[in-house]
Protein backbone atom coordinates (compact mmCIF):
# COMPACT_ATOMS: atom_id res chain seq x y z
CA UNK A 1 0.00 0.00 0.00
CA UNK A 2 1.21 3.49 -0.82
CA UNK A 3 -0.90 5.88 1.27
CA UNK A 4 -0.74 9.58 0.54
CA UNK A 5 -2.67 10.62 3.62
CA UNK A 6 -5.51 9.60 5.92
CA UNK A 7 -9.07 10.78 6.13
CA UNK A 8 -11.52 10.34 8.97
CA UNK A 9 -14.09 7.64 8.48
CA UNK A 10 -16.99 9.78 7.42
CA UNK A 11 -19.55 7.05 7.14
CA UNK A 12 -18.25 4.42 9.56
CA UNK A 13 -21.22 2.26 10.37
CA UNK A 14 -21.48 1.45 14.03
CA UNK A 15 -21.33 -2.20 13.06
CA UNK A 16 -18.24 -3.11 15.00
CA UNK A 17 -19.39 -1.27 18.12
CA UNK A 18 -22.75 -2.99 18.11
CA UNK A 19 -21.37 -6.45 17.42
CA UNK A 20 -18.40 -6.39 19.74
CA UNK A 21 -20.30 -8.18 22.49
CA UNK A 22 -21.63 -10.88 20.18
CA UNK A 23 -19.71 -14.16 20.13
CA UNK A 24 -17.49 -14.86 17.15
CA UNK A 25 -18.71 -17.43 14.66
CA UNK A 26 -17.81 -21.01 15.39
CA UNK A 27 -18.15 -24.10 13.23
CA UNK A 28 -21.44 -24.85 14.99
CA UNK A 29 -22.52 -21.35 15.88
CA UNK A 30 -23.56 -20.25 19.35
CA UNK A 31 -26.85 -21.37 20.88
CA UNK A 32 -29.14 -18.53 21.91
CA UNK A 33 -32.25 -19.39 23.89
CA UNK A 34 -35.59 -18.86 22.26
CA UNK A 35 -36.56 -17.29 18.96
CA UNK A 36 -34.55 -14.09 18.50
CA UNK A 37 -34.86 -11.30 15.95
CA UNK A 38 -31.82 -9.59 14.46
CA UNK A 39 -32.54 -6.45 16.49
CA UNK A 40 -32.27 -8.53 19.66
CA UNK A 41 -29.13 -10.33 18.56
CA UNK A 42 -27.33 -7.16 17.45
CA UNK A 43 -28.66 -4.30 19.56
CA UNK A 44 -27.46 -0.80 18.77
CA UNK A 45 -26.25 -1.51 15.25
CA UNK A 46 -27.14 1.41 12.99
CA UNK A 47 -29.12 0.62 9.84
CA UNK A 48 -29.49 -3.04 10.79
CA UNK A 49 -31.77 -5.03 8.50
CA UNK A 50 -33.12 -8.57 8.37
CA UNK A 51 -33.91 -10.96 5.54
CA UNK A 52 -36.00 -13.84 6.88
CA UNK A 53 -36.38 -17.13 5.02
CA UNK A 54 -39.40 -19.11 6.24
CA UNK A 55 -39.79 -21.94 5.60
CA UNK A 56 -36.18 -22.59 4.54
CA UNK A 57 -35.88 -23.96 1.01
CA UNK A 58 -33.32 -23.70 -1.73
CA UNK A 59 -33.72 -20.46 -3.68
CA UNK A 60 -32.76 -16.80 -3.82
CA UNK A 61 -34.19 -14.38 -1.27
CA UNK A 62 -33.80 -10.67 -0.62
CA UNK A 63 -35.29 -7.32 0.19
CA UNK A 64 -34.06 -5.24 -2.72
CA UNK A 65 -30.69 -4.59 -1.09
CA UNK A 66 -29.40 -7.92 0.17
CA UNK A 67 -29.69 -10.92 -2.14
CA UNK A 68 -29.04 -14.35 -0.63
CA UNK A 69 -28.79 -17.63 -2.47
CA UNK A 70 -29.72 -20.47 -0.08
CA UNK A 71 -29.05 -24.12 -0.79
CA UNK A 72 -30.69 -26.55 1.64
CA UNK A 73 -29.25 -30.08 1.57
CA UNK A 74 -28.67 -33.12 3.80
CA UNK A 75 -25.39 -33.24 5.69
CA UNK A 76 -23.04 -35.61 3.92
CA UNK A 77 -21.10 -36.89 6.95
CA UNK A 78 -21.28 -36.71 10.73
CA UNK A 79 -19.88 -33.69 12.56
CA UNK A 80 -16.91 -35.23 14.33
CA UNK A 81 -16.94 -32.96 17.38
CA UNK A 82 -20.54 -33.95 18.26
CA UNK A 83 -21.81 -37.22 19.61
CA UNK A 84 -24.61 -38.82 17.68
CA UNK A 85 -25.40 -39.35 14.01
CA UNK A 86 -25.96 -36.16 11.99
CA UNK A 87 -25.52 -37.68 8.53
CA UNK A 88 -28.56 -36.77 6.46
CA UNK A 89 -29.69 -34.00 8.82
CA UNK A 90 -30.88 -30.74 7.25
CA UNK A 91 -28.20 -28.05 6.74
CA UNK A 92 -27.73 -25.19 4.27
CA UNK A 93 -25.14 -23.10 2.42
CA UNK A 94 -25.54 -19.46 1.48
CA UNK A 95 -23.93 -16.75 -0.62
CA UNK A 96 -24.95 -13.10 -0.16
CA UNK A 97 -24.42 -9.94 -2.17
CA UNK A 98 -25.40 -6.33 -1.63
CA UNK A 99 -24.87 -6.15 2.11
CA UNK A 100 -22.61 -6.98 5.03
CA UNK A 101 -23.92 -10.08 6.79
CA UNK A 102 -23.13 -9.67 10.49
CA UNK A 103 -24.82 -12.85 11.58
CA UNK A 104 -27.05 -15.73 10.54
CA UNK A 105 -29.70 -16.85 13.02
CA UNK A 106 -30.85 -20.43 12.40
CA UNK A 107 -34.05 -21.49 14.19
CA UNK A 108 -34.81 -25.16 14.69
CA UNK A 109 -36.16 -26.77 17.83
CA UNK A 110 -36.71 -24.53 20.86
CA UNK A 111 -33.59 -22.34 20.41
CA UNK A 112 -31.59 -20.37 17.84
CA UNK A 113 -28.12 -21.07 16.48
CA UNK A 114 -26.27 -17.79 15.89
CA UNK A 115 -23.38 -17.60 13.45
CA UNK A 116 -21.85 -14.23 14.30
CA UNK A 117 -19.45 -12.36 11.98
CA UNK A 118 -18.47 -9.00 13.52
CA UNK A 119 -16.28 -8.11 10.54
CA UNK A 120 -18.95 -9.18 8.04
CA UNK A 121 -19.22 -12.17 5.75
CA UNK A 122 -20.82 -13.08 2.45
CA UNK A 123 -20.96 -16.89 2.53
CA UNK A 124 -21.25 -19.95 4.73
CA UNK A 125 -21.52 -23.73 4.41
CA UNK A 126 -23.22 -26.49 6.40
CA UNK A 127 -25.05 -24.12 8.76
CA UNK A 128 -27.60 -25.86 10.97
CA UNK A 129 -30.04 -25.54 13.86
CA UNK A 130 -28.86 -26.08 17.47
CA UNK A 131 -27.86 -29.65 18.26
CA UNK A 132 -30.48 -31.70 20.07
CA UNK A 133 -28.45 -32.98 23.00
CA UNK A 134 -30.86 -35.85 23.62
CA UNK A 135 -30.50 -37.59 20.27
CA UNK A 136 -27.34 -35.96 18.88
CA UNK A 137 -29.11 -34.69 15.74
CA UNK A 138 -29.73 -31.32 14.14
CA UNK A 139 -33.45 -30.45 14.11
CA UNK A 140 -35.06 -29.57 10.81
CA UNK A 141 -34.77 -25.93 9.89
CA UNK A 142 -37.63 -23.74 11.07
CA UNK A 143 -36.50 -20.39 9.67
CA UNK A 144 -33.31 -18.48 8.88
CA UNK A 145 -32.66 -14.79 9.51
CA UNK A 146 -29.81 -12.96 7.80
CA UNK A 147 -28.84 -9.95 9.91
CA UNK A 148 -27.02 -7.36 7.80
CA UNK A 149 -26.25 -3.74 7.09
CA UNK A 150 -26.14 -2.37 3.54
CA UNK A 151 -22.71 -1.96 2.06
CA UNK A 152 -21.18 1.49 2.31
CA UNK A 153 -20.85 3.43 -0.92
CA UNK A 154 -17.40 4.98 -0.75
CA UNK A 155 -16.46 7.91 -2.92
CA UNK A 156 -13.24 8.23 -4.88
CA UNK A 157 -11.41 11.37 -5.96
CA UNK A 158 -8.32 11.29 -8.16
CA UNK A 159 -5.49 13.68 -9.01
CA UNK A 160 -2.45 13.22 -11.26
CA UNK A 161 0.84 14.60 -9.99
CA UNK A 162 1.45 16.60 -13.20
CA UNK A 163 -0.94 17.85 -15.84
CA UNK A 164 1.90 18.44 -18.29
CA UNK A 165 5.42 17.09 -18.59
CA UNK A 166 8.27 16.54 -21.00
CA UNK A 167 8.68 13.01 -22.34
CA UNK A 168 11.00 10.95 -20.17
CA UNK A 169 9.65 12.34 -16.91
CA UNK A 170 7.57 10.32 -14.39
CA UNK A 171 3.98 10.94 -13.33
CA UNK A 172 1.82 9.33 -10.62
CA UNK A 173 -1.86 9.29 -9.75
CA UNK A 174 -3.45 9.56 -6.29
CA UNK A 175 -6.90 8.19 -5.47
CA UNK A 176 -8.56 9.25 -2.22
CA UNK A 177 -11.30 7.08 -0.71
CA UNK A 178 -13.80 8.42 1.81
CA UNK A 179 -17.22 7.54 3.22
CA UNK A 180 -16.25 3.86 3.23
CA UNK A 181 -16.82 1.35 6.03
CA UNK A 182 -13.23 0.46 6.94
CA UNK A 183 -12.49 -0.33 3.29
CA UNK A 184 -10.00 -3.03 2.35
CA UNK A 185 -9.21 -4.63 -1.01
CA UNK A 186 -7.36 -2.85 -3.80
CA UNK A 187 -7.31 0.17 -6.08
CA UNK A 188 -6.16 -0.40 -9.65
CA UNK A 189 -4.71 2.50 -11.61
CA UNK A 190 -4.80 2.29 -15.42
CA UNK A 191 -3.31 4.66 -17.99
CA UNK A 192 -4.66 4.97 -21.54
CA UNK A 193 -3.06 6.71 -24.47
CA UNK A 194 -1.54 8.49 -26.00
CA UNK A 195 -4.59 10.10 -27.56
CA UNK A 196 -7.03 7.30 -26.64
CA UNK A 197 -9.84 9.76 -26.02
CA UNK A 198 -12.36 7.13 -24.87
CA UNK A 199 -10.01 4.79 -22.97
CA UNK A 200 -11.25 2.00 -25.23
CA UNK A 201 -7.85 0.53 -26.03
CA UNK A 202 -5.56 -1.55 -23.88
CA UNK A 203 -4.01 0.23 -20.92
CA UNK A 204 -0.37 1.19 -21.45
CA UNK A 205 0.32 1.02 -17.71
CA UNK A 206 -1.42 -0.51 -14.68
CA UNK A 207 -0.62 -0.59 -10.98
CA UNK A 208 -2.55 -2.08 -8.06
CA UNK A 209 -2.25 -0.89 -4.47
CA UNK A 210 -3.64 -2.36 -1.26
CA UNK A 211 -6.38 -0.46 0.57
CA UNK A 212 -6.46 -0.18 4.34
CA UNK A 213 -9.05 2.37 5.36
CA UNK A 214 -10.32 5.69 4.08
CA UNK A 215 -7.18 7.42 2.82
CA UNK A 216 -5.25 8.55 -0.21
CA UNK A 217 -3.37 5.95 -2.25
CA UNK A 218 -0.68 6.72 -4.83
CA UNK A 219 0.34 4.65 -7.82
CA UNK A 220 3.86 3.72 -8.82
CA UNK A 221 5.45 6.21 -11.23
CA UNK A 222 4.65 5.89 -14.93
CA UNK A 223 7.12 7.21 -17.52
CA UNK A 224 5.43 7.87 -20.89
CA UNK A 225 7.39 6.77 -23.96
CA UNK A 226 5.49 8.77 -26.56
CA UNK A 227 4.03 12.25 -26.78
CA UNK A 228 0.32 12.97 -26.60
CA UNK A 229 -2.46 13.03 -24.02
CA UNK A 230 -2.67 10.22 -21.47
CA UNK A 231 -5.74 9.51 -19.35
CA UNK A 232 -5.82 7.81 -15.93
CA UNK A 233 -8.66 5.80 -14.40
CA UNK A 234 -8.62 4.57 -10.79
CA UNK A 235 -10.96 1.76 -9.70
CA UNK A 236 -11.62 0.60 -6.15
CA UNK A 237 -12.80 -3.01 -6.29
CA UNK A 238 -14.89 -3.00 -3.11
CA UNK A 239 -14.98 -5.64 -0.36
CA UNK A 240 -17.44 -7.36 1.96
CA UNK A 241 -18.45 -4.04 3.54
CA UNK A 242 -18.09 -1.62 0.64
CA UNK A 243 -19.41 -1.23 -2.87
CA UNK A 244 -16.88 -0.65 -5.66
CA UNK A 245 -16.06 2.91 -6.69
CA UNK A 246 -14.48 4.02 -9.94
CA UNK A 247 -13.36 7.05 -11.82
CA UNK A 248 -14.18 7.59 -15.50
CA UNK A 249 -12.28 8.32 -18.66
CA UNK A 250 -11.68 12.07 -18.98
CA UNK A 251 -12.35 12.82 -15.32
CA UNK A 252 -11.07 16.21 -14.22
CA UNK A 253 -7.42 16.21 -13.08
CA UNK A 254 -6.79 12.81 -14.69
CA UNK A 255 -5.15 13.85 -17.97
CA UNK A 256 -1.45 14.30 -18.64
CA UNK A 257 -0.15 16.10 -21.73
CA UNK A 258 3.27 14.76 -22.66
CA UNK A 259 5.39 17.05 -24.82
CA UNK A 260 8.50 16.43 -26.91
CA UNK A 261 11.95 16.81 -25.44
CA UNK A 262 13.67 20.09 -26.32
CA UNK A 263 17.29 19.35 -27.22
CA UNK A 264 20.18 21.77 -26.84
CA UNK A 265 22.01 22.47 -30.12
CA UNK A 266 25.44 24.10 -29.99
CA UNK A 267 27.64 24.78 -33.00
CA UNK A 268 31.36 25.55 -33.13
CA UNK A 269 33.29 26.70 -36.21
CA UNK A 270 35.72 24.00 -37.14
CA UNK A 271 38.86 24.20 -39.30
CA UNK A 272 37.44 25.58 -42.53
CA UNK A 273 35.75 24.23 -44.53
CA UNK A 274 34.40 21.77 -41.91
CA UNK A 275 31.87 22.37 -39.12
CA UNK A 276 30.80 20.62 -35.91
CA UNK A 277 27.57 20.60 -33.86
CA UNK A 278 26.66 19.11 -30.49
CA UNK A 279 23.21 17.82 -29.56
CA UNK A 280 22.22 17.16 -25.93
CA UNK A 281 18.96 16.40 -24.15
CA UNK A 282 17.49 14.04 -26.73
CA UNK A 283 15.00 11.37 -25.61
CA UNK A 284 15.36 8.08 -27.49
CA UNK A 285 15.96 9.72 -30.87
CA UNK A 286 14.99 7.75 -33.98
CA UNK A 287 15.17 8.84 -37.59
CA UNK A 288 16.02 12.49 -37.17
CA UNK A 289 18.85 14.20 -39.04
CA UNK A 290 21.39 16.95 -38.59
CA UNK A 291 21.81 19.05 -41.75
CA UNK A 292 24.81 21.33 -42.27
CA UNK A 293 24.45 24.14 -44.82
CA UNK A 294 27.25 26.47 -45.88
CA UNK A 295 26.34 29.82 -47.43
CA UNK A 296 28.78 31.99 -49.35
CA UNK A 297 27.72 35.17 -47.59
CA UNK A 298 27.03 36.54 -44.13
CA UNK A 299 23.22 36.69 -44.57
CA UNK A 300 22.60 32.98 -45.25
CA UNK A 301 20.62 33.86 -48.36
CA UNK A 302 20.45 32.14 -51.70
CA UNK A 303 21.26 28.52 -52.27
CA UNK A 304 23.82 26.94 -49.98
CA UNK A 305 27.16 26.17 -51.59
CA UNK A 306 27.45 22.96 -49.57
CA UNK A 307 24.98 20.66 -47.75
CA UNK A 308 25.63 17.56 -45.65
CA UNK A 309 23.13 15.40 -43.72
CA UNK A 310 23.77 12.92 -40.90
CA UNK A 311 21.39 10.57 -39.06
CA UNK A 312 20.95 11.14 -35.32
CA UNK A 313 20.81 8.12 -33.03
CA UNK A 314 21.91 9.64 -29.73
CA UNK A 315 23.27 12.74 -28.04
CA UNK A 316 26.72 13.65 -29.28
CA UNK A 317 28.98 15.57 -31.64
CA UNK A 318 28.40 15.68 -35.39
CA UNK A 319 31.02 16.96 -37.85
CA UNK A 320 31.08 17.49 -41.59
CA UNK A 321 33.44 15.34 -43.60
CA UNK A 322 33.85 17.18 -46.92
CA UNK A 323 37.20 19.04 -47.19
CA UNK A 324 36.98 20.17 -50.83
CA UNK A 325 34.24 22.77 -50.69
CA UNK A 326 34.58 25.37 -53.42
CA UNK A 327 33.37 28.91 -52.89
CA UNK A 328 32.88 31.50 -55.63
CA UNK A 329 34.05 34.55 -53.76
CA UNK A 330 36.22 35.56 -50.89
CA UNK A 331 34.88 37.32 -47.84
CA UNK A 332 32.58 35.78 -45.20
CA UNK A 333 30.90 32.35 -45.35
CA UNK A 334 28.26 31.17 -42.86
CA UNK A 335 27.09 27.83 -41.51
CA UNK A 336 23.57 26.98 -40.43
CA UNK A 337 22.92 23.67 -38.66
CA UNK A 338 19.41 22.23 -38.43
CA UNK A 339 18.20 19.26 -36.39
CA UNK A 340 14.96 17.92 -37.88
CA UNK A 341 13.51 16.44 -34.70
CA UNK A 342 11.43 13.24 -34.59
CA UNK A 343 8.41 11.72 -32.83
CA UNK A 344 9.89 12.34 -29.38
CA UNK A 345 12.11 15.37 -29.89
CA UNK A 346 11.58 18.94 -31.03
CA UNK A 347 13.68 20.28 -33.86
CA UNK A 348 16.41 22.88 -33.40
CA UNK A 349 18.32 25.27 -35.64
CA UNK A 350 21.31 27.52 -35.22
CA UNK A 351 21.10 31.18 -36.16
CA UNK A 352 22.74 32.80 -39.14
CA UNK A 353 25.71 34.62 -37.71
CA UNK A 354 26.42 32.00 -35.03
CA UNK A 355 29.11 30.53 -37.28
CA UNK A 356 30.79 32.82 -39.75
CA UNK A 357 34.25 32.40 -41.19
CA UNK A 358 36.07 35.22 -42.95
CA UNK A 359 38.24 33.94 -45.78
CA UNK A 360 41.60 35.52 -46.39
CA UNK A 361 42.71 33.46 -49.34
CA UNK A 362 41.89 33.21 -53.00
CA UNK A 363 38.75 31.06 -53.36
CA UNK A 364 39.11 27.64 -54.86
CA UNK A 365 38.11 27.43 -58.50
CA UNK A 366 38.93 31.06 -59.29
Automatic annotation (TrEMBL):
Protein name: Uncharacterized protein
Lineage of producing organism: Bacteria, Bacillati, Actinomycetota, Actinomycetes, Micromonosporales
Signal peptide range: 1-27
Organism expressing this protein natively: Spirilliplanes yamanashiensis
Keywords carried by this UniProt record: Signal
InterPro entries listed in its UniProt record: Ig-like_fold (IPR013783)
Gene Ontology process terms (BP): carbohydrate metabolic process
